[in-house]
């Protein structure tokens, strides 16, 4: 390899973190909106005079939009490219956040939430696509975990920091500020991001690794045929269900009803309640890095999923069943951290999706699995909301949340069962025509 080539390789190895970094800023916005509504629940209920079920549906509007956009997101990432896709998506999210913040009626709030969901839905799949172009196969699990960690910083901001921000600025101004920030990030994505190293005159990762670059990989894939391949591949679907079960359960606690549970069952102040659920989000962030790195280091996917998944179900068992659904407050913070820490089994589900399908359609394969998590996150919160609407006033808070969180426990258990059906890839692409 010539000196010029070595220079290009060094530039690639440096600039890939610029590309990944600016897209990760957009992903922080994704997580913020994912969890922020639960923190301003009281403000929304009082402003719009809505029921628990309506509040649950308002939160789920984001997830329905996100879910329905996953396959189109994969197609956009594989055809239009991650750079333009994230730029437009983050711009839409900014506009939607401003609409949500200044919504005069609940219908405008639903519209704003819908636009936010549509906008942010394209970001993560685009990052996975970027990773497949700028990072080695052996780095994919680790980078997916780091990406999830960075995104979770947005979830952390949507907890106690958001409560404080709302106290100073009101909830309306807070969401408008986040909207403006999103628009700025969308501009940065367009200016700094590139879809592939080749767009900058740099060698591809495949060339650096000494892998053969297939001709089919050099041209645009047939998106419809690619989607059919992914959907018809039975190895795609276990990861879908694992993500649905685990993440759906987590969102009911961290994004919708966790603060209310802590306030009503433990009688603790709102800022302190938000700090407790923030502990679960921090756990998710840390666990995402640990499970990704652990998987890549031992060259296994299924074993880490099983170990983490087992502890995750045990954590839910303690939360829902110990002392009738009210564990001692002394163990609550470490319990919530462990619940978050072991939840990101789905990080490896994304890697498996890429590794059991053709590499040229990495965007589509990961997007199909990604639908699962947001299907679970869309269905479960309104389901719990109906429980609260039906039984509020007839049960004590402990009994009420025990009954509601039973659905979260069942969701986690179903996800765990499907880990056994995951195809072990040993951290490499095992797809065969």
Automatic annotation (TrEMBL):
It is a multi-pass membrane protein. Its main location: membrane. The chain crosses the membrane at residues 17-36, 48-69, 81-100, 106-128, 149-169, 175-193, 236-253, 273-291, 303-325, 331-352, 364-384, 404-422. InterPro entries: MFS, MFS_dom, MFS_trans_sf, OPA_Antiporter, Sugar_P_transporter. One of its GO terms (molecular function) is glucose 6-phosphate:phosphate antiporter activity. One of its GO terms (cellular component) is plasma membrane. It is found in: Cell membrane. It comes from the Bacteria. GO terms for biological process: phosphate ion transmembrane transport. SUPFAM superfamilies: MFS general substrate transporter. Residues 19-427 form the Major facilitator superfamily (MFS) profile domain. Keywords: Membrane, Transmembrane, Transmembrane helix, Transport. This is Sugar phosphate permease. It comes from Paramaledivibacter caminithermalis (strain DSM 15212 / CIP 107654 / DViRD3) (Clostridium caminithermale). The lineage of its organism: Bacteria, Bacillati, Bacillota, Clostridia, Peptostreptococcales.
